[in-house]
Automatic annotation (TrEMBL):
<dbReference type="InterPro" id="IPR036291">
    <property type="entry name" value="NAD(P)-bd_dom_sf"/>
</dbReference>
<dbReference type="InterPro" id="IPR016040">
    <property type="entry name" value="NAD(P)-bd_dom"/>
</dbReference>
<keyword id="KW-0456">Lyase</keyword>
<keyword id="KW-0521">NADP</keyword>
<dbReference type="InterPro" id="IPR006368">
    <property type="entry name" value="GDP_Man_deHydtase"/>
</dbReference>
<dbReference type="GO" id="GO:0070401">
    <property type="term" value="F:NADP+ binding"/>
</dbReference>
<protein>
    <recommendedName>
        <fullName>GDP-mannose 4,6-dehydratase</fullName>
        <ecNumber>4.2.1.47</ecNumber>
    </recommendedName>
</protein>
<comment type="function">
    <text>Catalyzes the conversion of GDP-D-mannose to GDP-4-dehydro-6-deoxy-D-mannose.</text>
</comment>
<feature type="domain" description="NAD(P)-binding">
    <location>
        <begin position="5"/>
        <end position="344"/>
    </location>
</feature>
<keyword id="KW-0536">Nodulation</keyword>
<dbReference type="Pfam" id="PF16363">
    <property type="entry name" value="GDP_Man_Dehyd"/>
</dbReference>
<dbReference type="GO" id="GO:0008446">
    <property type="term" value="F:GDP-mannose 4,6-dehydratase activity"/>
</dbReference>
<dbReference type="GO" id="GO:0042351">
    <property type="term" value="P:'de novo' GDP-L-fucose biosynthetic process"/>
</dbReference>
<comment type="similarity">
    <text>Belongs to the NAD(P)-dependent epimerase/dehydratase family. GDP-mannose 4,6-dehydratase subfamily.</text>
</comment>
Amino acid sequence: MKKALITGITGQDGSYLAEFLLEKGYEVHGIKRRASLFNTQRIDHVFQDPHEKPPLKLHYGDLSDSSNLTRLISQIEPDEIYNLGAQSHVAVSFEAPEYTADVDALGTLRMLEAIRFLGLEKRTRFYQASTSELYGLVQETPQRETTPFHPRSPYAVAKLYAYWITVNYREAYGMFACNGILFNHESPRRGETFVTRKITRGLANIAQGIDRCLYMGNLDALRDWGHARDYVRMQWMMLQCDEPEDFVIATGKQYSVRQFLIWAAAELGLELEFRGSGVDEIAVVAAINGNDAPALKVGNVILKVDPRYFRPAEVETLLGDPSKAHQKLGWQPQITVQEMCAEMVAADLEIARRHALLDSHGIAPAVAIEDN
Ligand code: NDP
Ligand code: GDR
């Protein structure tokens, strides 16, 4: 039985990857942070009683703690490590740049050093969660493995260090270490403050009368969005290659944030009209076709642009070229962005309906006030 260690197992990708590896028969170990509330919601459905020798084991740890990481790797002796843990929010990295560098840049170094220190460099394969944010101010379109980097945030700069230290340990110590340069990927398990989930959750809540208006930033940003389930498959495929290499993972299609809003609204039976531009832009309900938005009337303003969501330096456009992954690994994404949007809206509508039902019985569940 192969053993895998996942940092960031409680996150979006970690949860899909854990499911994927368990289905492949792996013994899966995950590092979770200590939190004052339960933080394993995304993996609870695959977690079993720890007293019954389950194939999924969780360990407390943190990417800022070398001794903890070294001890865990020494105890587990994993065949594969997936380093997905990170402060992963670009806007938050402007607020917490030093912490982001510590976890995202030095955290990667700590993992690699632990493997080397323990003499596991010829046994343990290492996957680094690199990102299309490395391209930032893009130098070439579409972006491929050879496109020069120009990071635009403390997050992206930290990930640039992580990218290169992974390459360096491969070259210096012959480690099987590779970077997946992943473009944005989403799912119903996406964190609530990333733009797609903010939209699907926000519109579902507004449609059900839980909220009134969504406040957003740059609606003109262009992204290449895929589904997390497709992308974690590729993370595993990269570690099964004969030689370690870096790969771009993307769909090769690009859409605006505004387009994603239009799709999400359509899933709720809403047609939107966009009025104004820049900070004055608003979206108004132009038509209602169906029963999913009982709280709304034609003419309601349900979205306003708020400059607080603009970033000090924005990544305006990203579009990936996944040809290498297609040609060398036969990887193709199977879920389109429209299918993904429909899945996300359906999931958030279900949550909003339950919330509204509880509300109607006088049991008001706490509403999380999320920012960013
Ligand atoms: P999430 O934000 O959903 O998950 C991040 C995970 O990292 C969580 O499990 C989080 O724990 C954990 N984490 C945060 N800080 C620490 C720390 N100090 N020590 C240990 N673990 C920590 O991210 P995704 O699943 O979306 O992304 C996975 C990885 O891929 C990240 O590295 C991200 O930067 C990168 N990436 C993501 C892309 C995307 O579009 N999703 C695209 C390209 C790269 P907790 O649950 O406790 O917060
Ligand atoms: P990104 O994702 O920064 O690309 O990083 P995010 O969904 O946060 O933003 C995408 C684009 O949408 C614009 N935007 C808004 N973004 C947020 N979060 N909230 C808003 O209200 C809003 N309005 C407009 C943003 O300005 C941006 O242009 C994600 C993360 O998962 C990273 O960890 C990962 O490395 C990259 O994707 C690839």
